[in-house]
Task: structure prediction
Amino acid sequence: MRDDRWLYGIIGVVAAVTAGWMLGGFGLVGGLIALAVPLGLATVVGILLEPRLGLLIYVNVSFVLGFSRFLSTEVPVGLALDGLLALTLLSTVLNGKRMAWYRLNNPTFYLLVVWLVYTLLEYFNPDAPSRQGWIYHIRSMSMNWFFLALIVFIVPIPRKDIYRLLGIWLFWSVLAAFWAFKQQYIGLEPAEQRWLAEGAERTHILWGQLRSFSFYSDAGQFGSEMAGVTLLCIIFFFESNRWLYRIGFVIIGLIVFWGFAVAGTRSALFAILAGYPVYLFLMRKPLPILRGVAVGIPIFLVLMFTHIGDSNYQIYRMRTALHPMEDMSFMVRLENQAKLRAFLKDLPFGAGIGSSTGAGQRFSPNHFASQIPTDSWYVQIWIETGIVGLSLYLFMIAGIMLTGTIKIWQLHDPKLQLLLVALLAEFAGIALVSYSNPILGQFPTSTLLFINSVLFCTGERWDTPLPNQTTQPADRQNPVYASV
Result:
């Protein structure tokens, strides 16, 4: 075999000389650039060789996006994440021979295709005030979900990667909770104070009390994410057979639950109140149902009908979520929706994607749709795609959960079934909370939901046969599965 060590030596010398020149000529910034370039190239090559790597990096970067508020200049971090997704998609195509394309024959994929086509056609909506807004909003509304789902569907993902994903999720969630505690009990960083002063103070400081937002986009998303992870910890605590794991989930659950509390996001409580019954329904076992009723009903009754703990602001604010008709902010939302109902009466396809919220305020600030707070992901869908789009979107969400339910009930492996039940229950809880917060379209929550929606709808790919089953499950009979 030819000896290429001389070539590597030359490359090493050139790299060292270049790094030294960059450090000497441009200081610390030059040194960082000299370090970042080879690492970046290695990452690109790694992703092109293995799309799974791109997927895991994408998840981590979705969490890092929240730190962009610490940058002194505006950086298009969202576009960088889109570039990472495009690179992972390119890798998937380049490695097409070992991809499981047959898995696209799935109801969830067809639903996502229909929704994508509808949002693409919205570009031609004659009532849209701006085409630039469409470009900004279609990514979070449909394209990111479709492309992420396409990758997760066909890439041969080993079962251990699901546990890696769960570990990444729990790690960032605990870190986010501690960052929120730092904001609440120690103080804010100058960049965070500046962000509040630029307008966020109106919704994040109520009666002199800070609603912690950690490194998420806002307190609404942070609180909802913490409540969703709390639900996961509750499920895994009850279903785990090892006390060491149970203790671990109790500790993590308490940390993230108090993270939810300091966020002051009242509606996020419904991620647990809705997701927990879904978990009980999916398990189809008397013991979990009885246990869930025994634990859940007393807690609900205490919050609903007593004033225990009202001296603590976080507990008091959590309790008010169960009395929405007594909440002025909720009544204002209903008034806004009444105005929107009159505005959208003759717009069955909506005012156009990108006509509301951030893109609307940027590209069509004088349009009615951009001046009404949406306060909800579904209201935003309603404004921008009309009653037709909203109906189609809700049908897609329901179809995905129904597909996941059927697929989960067909599994033989109880551990795999439990894992996917937890993902589906959390998906259902966050889907409900999105009525009051636009979190289905915000990183990192959206990234996890988009990936999870495919995982629990394709669980058969990791299933194991029963002891007396002589044949493999249908998914494992395909030769492509041999690469997993």
